[in-house]
Structure prediction request, 84 residues.
Amino acid sequence: MASTVLTLIGKPDCHLCEDARAIVTEVLADYPAVSLEERSILDDAELLEKYVEEIPVLLIDGRVHTIWRVKPERLRAALDERQT
Prediction:
């Protein structure tokens, strides 16, 4: 089974991004096989154009899971579903 990759897209000094990172980090403590990548819209013109008004964005294996606010119970459900 391929491992799951979460991608958190945001930018520095973004309080919603910091909140999302804290929730994702807390949830991932229970999912050691899931990896986290962080990307900044300031480092990628394509991401900036696509997500400038929507950060933070959380992707699961490249697909949008949520924008703005990460809900731990929804993220856990999505990760549990991938493990079955």
In short: Residues 15-28 form the longest helix (14 residues).
